[in-house]
Every structure is written in structure tokens, then in C-alpha cells.
Design a protein that fits this description.
123 residues, mainly beta, seven-stranded mixed β-sheet, four-stranded antiparallel β-sheet
Length: 123
């Protein structure tokens, strides 16, 4: 069992930055690939970024590539999402997730999910 808790969301103006954190329980955090997904009200959840167990490989959705950076600190059992140049269309609840099948953009490969943290970008 893995528990994930996101933090760092909030209200920011367009062009600003936020850094989201996801703290994981357990002693085997480094065994999991991690991902960030987001969901706007009334919309389907969509992939944002993913990172492999060691942090050596990352994949980003086209919508965030060049603006967002995912990284992890296995010693702290934490994965981060640095969000720069934020746009109003980035407004969503952001979810951290853990995969036992490696990094990827498919939602159904992630076994554990956090509760989400709200990010609101004003114009």
C-alpha cells in the first residue's frame, strides 16, 4: 500500500510559477515510476508528465512540454512538478500517481493516486 499526498497548489497569475510536491509513504518509493495528471471541472483527466524510478527518463504531454519539469528525490520519497509560464488553460486539479509498470502516459497503468491539489491560473 502506497499513500500519496500532493501539496503546493494555489492561485497564480498567468506567466507565473508553482512547484507541486507529492510525498509518498513506504520504503520502496524508488521502485515506482511516477506521474502527474490533471483534471479540469467537467473534463476528463489528462496526462501531464511522468518519470522513471531513477529519474533518468521523463516524458511530457505536448501541452506542458518546455514549461513543466518533473523530477524526484528518492531519499525524500517525493516527486515534484515545477510549473513555469503558467496559462489559464493549466487550471485543474493536479494528481500525483505511482505506477508499478514503469513510466507512461496511460492512466490505467498507475496503481496509487493522491487526493489532488488545485491549481488556478488567472488571466
Amino acid at each position: 500500500q502506497v499513500q500519496l499526498v500532493e501539496s503546493g497548489g494555489g492561485l497564480v497569475q498567468a506567466g507565473g510559477s508553482l512547484r507541486l510536491s507529492c510525498a509518498a509513504s513506504g520504503r520502496t518509493f524508488s521502485s515506482y515510476a511516477m506521474g502527474w495528471f490533471r483534471q479540469a471541472p467537467g473534463k476528463e483527466r489528462e496526462f501531464a508528465a511522468t518519470i522513471n524510478w531513477s529519474g533518468s527518463n521523463t516524458v511530457y504531454a505536448d501541452s506542458v512540454k518546455g514549461r513543466f519539469t518533473i523530477n524526484r528525490d528518492n531519499a525524500k520519497n517525493t516527486v515534484y512538478l515545477q510549473m513555469n509560464s503558467l496559462k489559464p488553460e493549466d487550471t485543474a486539479v493536479y494528481y500525483c500517481a505511482a505506477s508499478v509498470y514503469g513510466l507512461g502516459y496511460r492512466e490505467d497503468q498507475y496503481r496509487y493516486w493522491g487526493q489532488g491539489t488545485q491549481v488556478t491560473v488567472s488571466s
